[in-house]
Amino acid sequence: MLKKGESLNEKVLSWHLLEDVLAWVGILVGALIIYVIDPILTVGLTGSILYNVNKKLREAINILMQGVLKNINLDDVKKDILSIKGRIGFHNIHIWSLEGETNIFTAHVVLDDETLKRPEEVKQTIKEALKKHHIEHNTIEPESKYHCTGIV
Question: What are the CA-CA distances from residue 28 to residues 31, 33, 38, 74 (Å)?
Fold first, then answer.
């Protein structure tokens, strides 16, 4: 509608109108991009949050249910206890965590008659073996093979 004017006022007015049109085109393009990208980003962010919440919730439930943590291999702990001299068997093994960092171990360890005379040595050996598995707190109950409820 405006011709390329000859005067400075006409030129400034033409540039101003061109800038307004370009700004509106930029805003329209930006709005269209946001219209497409926003739902994608929202779904992606929501999915990421739900994934992490699910993972942390499983860990929290495992701790509340006093389950064995992922960083503890129960079979390796059992092998280490089975390798101790004078040990006949064990039962009632429980490994859990209070808050995900402090691991706790309890077990009844069945000892032969000779080893049962010095249970503190066996307890100390078991405690040292448990330290390799990052188990800091433990309760070890030495038992005679004649006075126990079960042997593994």
Answer: 5, 9, 15, 61
Identity of the residue numbered 121: E
Select the more confidently predicted residue: 60 or 10: 60
Query: 72-100 burial, b if ≥16 CB within 10 A, otherwise e?
Result: beeeebeebbeebebbbbbeebebbbeee
Global pTM?
0.61
Task: Based on the fold, state whether residues 95 and 50 are members of the same structural domain.
Answer: no
Q: Mean of the pLDDT values across residues 104-111?
A: 88
* E strand map for the chain: 87-97, 103-111, 137-144
Does residue 33 form part of some domain?
yes
Tokens 């497409």, located at residue: 36
- CATH number, domain containing residue 96: 3.30.70.1350
Confidence of residue 118 (pLDDT cuts 50, 70, 90): confident
